[in-house]
Amino acid sequence: MSRGNLEPEKEPVKNGTPPKIIAFLCNWCSYVGADMAGTTRLKQPEGVEVILVPCTGRMDPLFPMKALVEGAEGVLVSGCHPGECHHQDGNLYARRRLEVLKGFLPFMGFEEERFSYTWISASEGKKWQQVVTKFTERIKSLNGKKD
Amino acid sequence: MTEFSTLMEKGKEATNPYLPEVAVIQKIVDETSDIKTFRLVIKNREKLKKFSFTSGQVGQVSLFGVGESTFAISSSPKTKDFLEFSVMRAGENSSALHELSVGDAVGVRAPFGNGFPVKEMEGKNILVIGGGIGIAPLRSLIFYLLGEREKYKNVKIIYGARTPNDLCFRRDLRAWKRRDDIECILAVDNKFPGWEGKVGFVPAILAEEAPAPADTVAVTCGPPIMIKFVLDELKKLGFKKEHIVTTLERRMKCGVGLCGRCNVGPKYVCVDGPVFTLAQLEELPNEI
Amino acid sequence: MAGKPIEMRNKKTKEQLENLKTQVEETLSQVDFVIGYAKGYDVLHPTPLFVRSTKDAQALIWDDFCINNLATYLPSQKRPGGLFHPHEKIGLVVKGCDSRAVIQLLQEGIIDRENFKIIGISCQGKVDVKKLKNRVPIERVENAEIKEGSIELTVDSRGQKYPLEEVLYSKCLSCEYPTPLIYDRLVGGEGSLRSKGPKEFAQDPYHDVEEFEKKGVNERLDFWEQEFSRCLRCYACRDICPFCYCQFECIAQTRIPHWLSQKTASKENKFFHMFRAMHLAGRCTECGECERACPVDLPLLLLHKKMNKKVSELFGYKSGINPKLRPPLIIFQPEEKNIEEEKWE
Amino acid sequence: MSKVIAVEKIDDWLDTLNETHRIFAPFKPGGATRFEGYQRGKELDLERFAVSSPKEAFFPATETIFNFKLGKENVSETVVSLESQVKNQNQIVFGARCCDAKGLATFDTVFSGSGYQDPYFKKKRNTTLLITIACHQPANTCFCTSVGGGPADPKGADILLTSLDDKYLAQTFSTKAKTLLAGSFFTDATQKDLKEAKDKNEAARQKLKTFSVERVSQKLTKIFESEYWNEKAAKCLSCGACTYTCPTCYCFNLTDEGKSTGERVRTWDSCMFPQFTLEASGHNPRPKKDHRLRNRVNHKFSYFPTQHRMLSCVGCGRCIRHCPVSVDIREIVRGVQEV
User: Fold this and answer.
1) D/C Cβ contact: 3+ pairs below 8 Å
2) CA distance C317 to chain B (A)
3) Nearest residue of B to residue D299 by CA position?
4) Counting Cβ atoms within 10 Å, is residue D20 exposed (0-12), middle (13-18) or buried (19+)?
């Protein structure tokens, strides 16, 4: 039985290797914020793969869904704060879609903690570090609990 | 590797007709903005030596991880050390093929289908009518005819494309034009600066040339719309249905008559075709 | 009410049928054809009927098994004309739950109101053949009749009786719109009040969703893994759905983009049903046809009801009720009342 | 050879067979009865009709044709290793109906016929034994007797079981089948048993209404252009339920998955899907659902018989029972004769 949707043949993550986490970051705010966190040497967990999207408005809810079904252990989406979207209302549309997705995934057997979305502006490197660290800890605790 | 023999070697008795033969791209010629000719060399030399086909037969080219699609073999049946496929960029597989470069590997399964009736055509005049990428199988046929030139009476080629830049195999066209034992008429759809050849659609050029139907076999390949008008024109000119030969295009997957996809009525284009005479076509349901 | 209630039920159904025939015949003059119900291969399976003349109209039927949501024929790809947008005018027999699909299609602008005429017909609940199938070998049914609050099936020349509450569709037991919400003509006046279903069921149509949500996450994971291992990927659920009108370009079968492998393992099947549920978020009107059409009896309505429950909690939106409303996922509010940003401290 | 086995011994018999064979039998996991791998304790359902035929034992819905591995030996030469092996596994399909067994004749004609042969199907076909059960209670959608079959037709089966209330008569129709009837579960069949079985099978045959499909094949070619198909396909949804549950539908798709390592996969496909004949240029010879329905009916009752001189429909009625809008192929075929 595949737990956490890893391919059945892949053995579950040993506590050493970092969990597979995908982060969709919007090009104008969150990506810049995350980049700033890197350049200012803020400590960040390993294993987080960033995918750049032009705007959270471009976020098809099927992106995180596909990632989780194919074996990602956590998906994070972050964009500009509502009201500050570079494209005016991209994040406002996204908020609804991603909230519906967040409510639907647990029903299908994915722990709630596996998908989150948030808003991080270009200057909030600190917040990015906080979000990505907390998110990765939560995912690790999930795997710990399961084995 | 595998204990199965591929289609390339055993033809009908291939123990696994789905298994392609690995080939390497030796040369790529940019025929037009969206057509490239790929020269493939099968890695397994003996299989390549033993491989034979008739002009008009097709092959399936595999891009591992992408898929397979069907292309006419455009090289001459006489050349033994490579195979050529002229590919127009259209779907997922052909577009991926256009991204490859010399040295990349592909899979080949060939030959499929029946090929042109070159035996029955012997001793007759041959009229070859091509349009756009439809010239690919006809190129292979023309090479064959020139190789056995004495077996055929006079040979006339009518080949058209949208613009001069859309004419394929320009080097071969020039060679054919220079020969005195064949007639080669080239056309483009409308006037084009620097173009001296004919201007007009292929069916119109055919009507203008009005070749005599007596003892002549007409072979035509091209986009469906052109085929429709060429067939009507040939009938108007008095060509017998048995002497009008064309090819059908269908979505293909297995290529060996098993996956049930490419049927026109009871016939499967991949094994009973792709070459049909007009007489055979008219027996099939009207679902072209 | 005078007379036993069930005899009243049969009486009403018969009257409605006569009235329906005349209404359909009258509509014929305004449309190219009317879609109604005809007798199918057995008494439990009526089949859609395309009426083009008064002679065809005689084959119309109306009974406790006419369940098909005929609104699925409105989007152009499924019409007999098929591929393009013919200017055909269509007449349609529509029950209460089906009328929600018509309204939702109008809200999505995929159909034009003046291109079709609705013959609304009030409904007293339909018998769920799959609930019968689990009780008796229905493939040998000879007759079915409603008598004194139960349905009597004759199978292998023996009568079997089942109380209606046990065999009606769950959506009928909690039905709020027995009378169609949109119609040009109405057959048989207002619908009967919501038929009395098992108490806790009647109040909350999302009763089964809440039951399922109480399970642990691994239990749910295993449940779906088990269920979707049966899916054949025949796409009957997609092709019967009024809102899946892009069969030609469905990402379940395209290679550009290449979302889904054609492999039929439980994982791929699950992803197909998940993204279909996502595509129906804020659109599905819970007509239940996907669950009825499924040859391997997957609990598909459960998926879409969960999605609708979430959408109604977040946006207070119910699909296919008000033609003026725009579906919730193509609009937004600057301040969303029911969505708070996740706290990370 | 004919033997008799008591009903309560069936499970033990299957248990012993299960040690040497992989058994496919009808079980009721959810609401739908379906052919699945046998496990001790799983409750067999021999009464209901299985949703899709046991063709999955020979022609699985998903099957790897070969694996590939792309590796760059040196920049100019790409290495591809193709590896395809067909698993060798003795199988038994238990509890199929006679129409299911007859359906395999279509697969044999196509996949191991005179043209190219399919090694994946052939290997499974040669290592699988078919145990069918005579139908004593046909469904109202069954019409096997109208297409040359019958509720107890042994064609294609290795062993035919006929229910005699508390026991089954087991008749073998292939040499391989005899090995299965060894062991203590079986006793010799008496003349009385044989007579009783014959009567029961005859009674079952009488229950079926038979109609004629004579001249349908020729008539189909004549009415290809008629409006008849537009009417018949009007209600059709063009889904794949009829083809995926049909015992004689063998159409398949070949797709590649993976990037530098991956596989070419064969999966079921349906002529009722619009994408089945969609070409890269966008042209589709069968763009509308009436074209597709016309092609499906023509294939079963005209194209296949023209090529192979046998109908490709066994009258099991699954395409009628599982059609979401109850398109009835009997009605279409009979209607063809009157157009």
Assistant:
1) yes
2) 41
3) B266
4) exposed
Residue B240 identity (one-letter amino acid): K
Vertex B50, ends B47 and B53: CA angle to 5°? 110
To the nearest whole angstrom, how far is the Cα of A16 from the nearest Cα of chain C? 24
Q: Say yes or no to pLDDT of D301 above 50.
A: yes
In this structure, are residues C33 and C51 in contact, taking their beta carbons and an 8 Å threshold?
A: yes
Q: Flag whether A4 is in a domain.
A: no
The answer on C235 and C107 residing in a single domain is no
A21-26/B67-72 β-pairing: unpaired
Domain that holds residue A37: 18-146
Q: Which of these three, C138, C162, C193, is where a domain ends?
A: C193
Contact by Cβ (8 Å): A122, A36: yes
Residue D184 burial by Cβ neighbours in a 10 Å radius (0-12, 13-18, 19+): exposed
Instruction: Tell me, yes or no, whether C108 and C234 share the same domain.
Output: no
Low-confidence stretches of chain C (pLDDT beneath 70) = 1-6, 77-86, 189-203
In a domain, C335, yes or no: no
Contact D325 C247 (CB under 8 A): no
Residue A3, pLDDT above cutoff 90: no
Q: CA–CA separation, B7 vs B17, rounded Å?
A: 5
Mean pLDDT for the stretch of residues B18-39: 95
pLDDT of residue D183 exceeding 80: no
CB nearest B4 (choices: D78, D84, D266): D84
In a domain, C21, yes or no: yes
Note whether C82 and D289 are within 8 A (CB): yes
Task: Please report, for chain D, the start and end positions of each structural domain, with discontinuous segments joined by +.
Answer: 2-338
Q: Measure in Å the smallest separation between the Cα of D81 and chain B Cα atoms.
A: 7
Q: Is the peptide bond before C257 cis (omega within 30 degrees of 0)?
A: yes
Q: For residue C272, what pLDDT is reported?
A: 98
Query: Which residues in chain D are closer than 8 Å to C292, comparing Cβ atoms?
Result: 324
CB contact under 8 A, A96 and C328: yes
Interface of B with C in 130-169 (CB under 8 A): none
* Strand locations in chain C (E): 33-38, 47-51, 90-94, 116-121, 141-147, 150-155, 158-163, 185-187
Q: Is the dihedral of CA B94, B100, B101, B107 positive or negative?
A: negative
Candidates C202, C195, C148; CA nearest to C174 is C202
Q: Are strands B275-277 and B263-264 parallel, antiparallel or unpaired?
A: unpaired
The domains located in chain B, with CATH, are: 7-112 (2.40.30.10), 125-247 (3.40.50.80)
Instruction: Tell me how many domains chain A contains.
Output: 1
- For C71-109, write each residue's pLDDT tens digit: 999 997 666 655 545 678 999 999 999 999 999 999 999
Residue C215: give the domain boundaries.
Answer: 206-330
Pick among D326, D331, D333 to test the C interface (most C CBs inside 10 A): D326
Residues C216 and C272 in one domain: yes
- Examine the domain organization and report whether C244 and C303 are in the same domain: yes
Q: What's the pTM value of the predicted model, to 2 decimals?
A: 0.94
